[in-house]
Amino acid sequence: MYRFVFTQLLSRIDPEDAHHLTVGALRLLSVTPVVKRLVHRRLAPRDPALRVQAFGVHFPGPFGLAAGFDKDAGCVEAMSALGFSHVEVGTITAHAQPGNARPRLFRLVKDRAIINRMGFNNAGASAAARALSRPRGVPAVVGVNIGKTKVVPEAEAVHDYVAGAKELAPLADYLVVNVSSPNTPGLRNLQAVELLRPLLQGVKEVADSTPRRTPLLVKIAPDLADDDVDAVADLALELGLDGIIATNTTISREGVSSTEPGGLSGRPLKARSLEVLRRLRARVGDRLVLVSVGGVENVDDVWERLLAGATLVQGYSALIYEGPLWAHRIHRGLSRRLRRHGVRDLREIIGRTAT
Ligand SMILES: Cc1cc2nc3c(=O)[nH]c(=O)nc-3n(C[C@H](O)[C@H](O)[C@H](O)COP(=O)(O)O)c2cc1C
User: So where does FMN get bound (predicted)?
Assistant: First the structure.
């Protein structure tokens, strides 16, 4: 059914228009209490074996929606109802900004990939805080991903992230410092340890001061050299962060024909994303929560990431190709596989193939 809608309708219209159409429909679902609750009852993960606890937060399953889909926290309830165990909203910047000029979103259908250079288009931290303050009709775990406002110079980046964190940390189940998007000039320089340390320290102070102490994670790029991945991991441990999200989109164009500028995601990212996860696990063991994202398409991918040491797994690009039942299918498949292997608790398999 979705394949038909995709080939006959969505793939024929501009990708960003298709996205807005989808988000509009999802918002409609979010404001329809009865339907929303019915969908949630039908599609959200309910198998106790799928439950995960990470940094003190209970997740109904391991598979969530990666940042970038719900930039303004407008469809948290709808995406939770559709079966995502958590929704990472954002990237949200302290100040509203329009993002880059269109076109800025490209489908690479044959490669099962996406290229985007959105540039953190969002309505800003105050608008997101208002959206996140509204009472919800279905349970949802919400991560808030924050980034730097484009016009703010690198020297004032800490102040800008801290401003965003102050508004949003109290409303987040976990907070993510995004220093890895390729579409804000200079942003990825912040991954260098000497710049990253004061930034994470500043945001952590804010996250630690909320009534529940908001868990803090950092999201990294797949294009970091292996030594830099290790350096960020060591820093995260040193500062007492809760976890690392790996990875964001890549600037590499290996294996795809398009040379469109921006960040590449989806299937071509799978191998490097898994490689970074394995490296992180080897470095930190279970001292940090590892969230794996990049090229995840199906149950096999999620299974592989869990075995390699991820406690949570996220996806975005394959949603475009798989449709609204994607997360539900993944959790259902995972549930069956756990039963087949006699696993009653996901903790039994997390990191089992890690070295
Ligand atoms: C259109 C689009 C927009 C994105 N925007 C963001 C963003 O604002 N912040 C962020 O941290 N990641 C963003 N991402 C990256 C995803 O969260 C994810 O890390 C990446 O796409 C790899 O996962 P995937 O292969 O499952 O898509 C975006 C990805 C896409 C496709």
Answer: 67-71, 91, 145, 178, 219, 247, 266, 295, 316-317
